[in-house]
């Protein structure tokens, strides 16, 4: 008894392998595509040539162009006369509408300034007249003589920066004597000093020494002012006080 073939085995014949089918390509379609592309390029080239021909100026248009007649020269004007010496040259007037407007504005401003000046001058004249009308008339001297002009004397009063009653080098008098006596009561300030009523350099040095030792800074150094006076009088007393 024959053995049946196994699964997948052929029945006693050579197996047939699959054959690859190669289809032939149509070359005529590619040729047609290339031909169409060439024709499109030719048409585009011809269209470009036509546009260039239309844009170029034609010879007939150049022939029909006429030249414009020459412009006649402007009439010669005589040169302006030079201005006289010392005069300021004036510029030519501007007759344009803008220039006329500017001229009108300038004229209006000048008129306004002149009117304001006249009004101010009139007010300045009227104010003194009104003040003199309200005042009593001054008495005139008899005999028709004209009155002498009034002279105003201003007295200048010098104010001592160190206060009234300030003593300094060069002064003399009883106030200087009182100062010398008081300084003699302060130890080692005016040692063996004289009481002669003269504010000399020795007394100035004694006053400066007193100011330095007791911290008095309100007066000038060596000047017996208000601050130095109060400090000295608070520390000393004279016999008649």
From TrEMBL:
Which ranges are annotated Basic and acidic residues under compositional bias?
A: 1-10, 40-52
The segment(s) forming the Peptidoglycan binding-like domain are 172-232
> What Gene3D superfamilies does the record point to?
PGBD-like superfamily/PGBD
The keyword Cell membrane is annotated on this UniProt entry: no
InterPro entries, per this entry? Peptidoglycan-bd-like, PGBD-like_sf, PGBDSf
Pfam families named among the record's database cross-references: PG_binding_1
Q: Give the UniProt keywords, A-Z.
A: Membrane, Transmembrane, Transmembrane helix
Region (Disordered): which ranges?
1-22, 40-99
Top-level taxonomic group: Bacteria
Question: Bias category Pro residues: which stretches?
Answer: 69-86
Q: Where are the transmembrane segments?
A: 107-127
Q: What is this protein called?
A: Peptidoglycan binding-like domain-containing protein
Its lineage reads: Bacteria, Bacillati, Actinomycetota, Actinomycetes, Kitasatosporales
């Amino acid at each position: 008894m024959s053995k049946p073939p196994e699964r997948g085995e052929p029945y006693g014949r050579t197996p047939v392998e699959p054959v690859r089918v190669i289809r032939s390509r149509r070359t005529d379609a590619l040729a047609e595509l290339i031909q169409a592309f060439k024709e499109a390029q030719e048409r585009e080239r011809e269209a470009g040539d036509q546009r260039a021909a239309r844009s170029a100026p034609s010879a007939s248009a150049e022939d029909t162009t006429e030249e414009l007649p020459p412009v006649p020269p402007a009439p010669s004007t005589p040169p302006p006369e030079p201005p006289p010496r010392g005069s300021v040259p004036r510029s030519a007037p501007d007759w344009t509408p803008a220039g006329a407007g500017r001229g009108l504005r300038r004229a209006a401003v000048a008129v306004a300034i002149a009117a304001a000046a006249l009004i101010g001058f009139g007010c300045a004249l009227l104010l003194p007249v009104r003040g003199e009308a309200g005042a009593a008339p001054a008495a005139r001297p008899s005999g028709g003589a004209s009155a002498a002009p009034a002279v105003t004397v201003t007295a200048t009063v010098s104010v001592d920066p160190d206060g009234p009653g300030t003593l300094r080098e060069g002064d003399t008098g009883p106030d200087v004597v009182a100062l010398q006596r008081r300084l003699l009561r302060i130890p080692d300030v005016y040692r063996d000093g004289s009481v002669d009523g003269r504010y000399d350099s020795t007394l100035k040095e004694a006053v400066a020494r007193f100011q330095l030792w007791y911290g008095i800074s309100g007066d000038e150094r060596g000047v017996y002012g208000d601050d130095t006076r109060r400090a000295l009088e608070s520390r000393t007393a004279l016999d008649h006080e």
